[in-house]
Amino acid sequence: SGGIPYFATATTMASSAALTANGVVLGGGAGASPTTTAAFTDGQLLIGRTGLAPLLATLTGTTNQISVTNGAGVITLATPQNIHAAATPTFAGLTLSGFGTAGIVKNSAAGVLSGGNSVALASEVSGTLPVANGGTGATTAANNTFFMGPSSAGPSAPSFRTIAAADINAVGFVNGGNTVAATANLGTAAGSAFGLNINTNGSTRMSFDTSGAVQVTGQMYSNVATNTTNMGTGWTWDTNTSNTMRWTPGTDSGTATSVAMTNTKPGASYMFIVKGSGLSTVSITCPTGTTSYIPANGPRVGGTAASKTVYTIMYDGEQCLVTWITGF
């Protein structure tokens, strides 16, 4: 250093003292001698310093951001992964300052991200969500089907199906009838402090209290069964058909003499009406025991074909107790 460079010939530059090979000449200012830097190594640059002579140095990268690789006459800068327009970089996390409200991040068809707390299901969602991922796996379902698990055979994936008797036998009754393997019970559990009401049209029609007492609001009645066939001197009345029977024996009106009751229930009362002009005495046969009459049983009072004799029957489980009256 300290030499003064000059041209020894038209094409050759020399110096009054030796200059550093592969260095750079630095001016020394007015009245000062120039100097040279040290020889450059791979990747070195001459980096300025305000008010001071520049230094030879290499670029340094930042961990996980920019890496620097020095070579002979070349410096290579790189990121940890590709970031060009077609790249698919991977990040452990991402914070977007423009998303200030918690919600859902979605993209437009142009690839622009946006945030919000709602999704337009009709326009922004397509396909079906599988059962394993919390969906139904279906876009439609048959009429009167429900999305539920199997009715038997242990746990498995739910599906759309109709309600089976096994689904609700323990908790309710199916409109139209249940299939049961034993007597079914409707009511409150043992120890319950509440009764049971049966409603129609929004109003209570029948109430059962916890002691078993029953209150009916409105009329409680049975249908009136009728029979007009001729059955000789007697016939059988199946009380399952009705608690009230009107028998018009037709041409046998004068010889109607007996009726045998079946399927009667202890504690129940029945009404038996014989219509016709006959005068015969009608006896009533009870399912068990004897039949007692007040007044004593006797002939009906004759009249017209519209005349009626009425027998009111109470069955106490041992015998039938009958009161009767003619003349209607």
Feature tags:
mainly beta, rod-shaped, three-stranded antiparallel sheet, 328 residues, 24 strands, six-stranded mixed sheet, 2 helices
What does this structure look like?
The chain has 328 residues and is an all-beta fold. The protein has helices spanning 121-124, 165-168; strands spanning 5-7, 13-15, 25-26, 35-36, 45-49, 52-57, 67-71, 74-78, 104-107, 113-116, 146-148, 159-161, 196-200, 203-208, 214-216, 224-227, 234-238, 244-247, 258-262, 269-275, 283-285, 291-294, 308-315, 320-325. Strand 7 and strand 8 (74-78) form a beta hairpin. The radius of gyration is 55 Å and the shape is rod-shaped.
Element layout with pairings:
Elements lengths: L4 E3 L5 E3 L9 E2 L8 E2 L8 E5 L2 E6 L9 E5 L2 E5 L25 E4 L5 E4 L4 H4 L21 E3 L10 E3 L3 H4 L27 E5 L2 E6 L5 E3 L7 E4 L6 E5 L5 E4 L10 E5 L6 E7 L7 E3 L5 E4 L13 E8 L4 E6 L3
Parallel strand pairs: 16-18, 17-19, 18-20, 19-21, 22-24
Antiparallel strand pairs: 1-2, 3-4, 5-6, 7-8, 9-10, 11-12, 13-14, 14-15, 20-23, 23-24
Q: Quick one: biggest sheet?
A: 6 strands, mixed
**Which range best describes the helical content: under 10%, 10-25%, 25-40%, 40-55%, 55-70% or over 70%?**
under 10%
What distance separates the N and C termini?
A: 153 Å
Shape: rod-shaped
Could you tell me the strand content as a percent range?
Answer: 25-35%
Let me know the average pLDDT: 85
Which radius of gyration do the C-alpha atoms yield?
A: 55 Å
Instruction: Give the strand line-up of the largest sheet.
Output: 16-18-20-23-24-22
How do the helices and strands follow one another from N- to C-terminus? EEEEEEEEEEHEEHEEEEEEEEEEEE
**Main structural class:** mainly beta
List the uncertain runs.
Answer: none
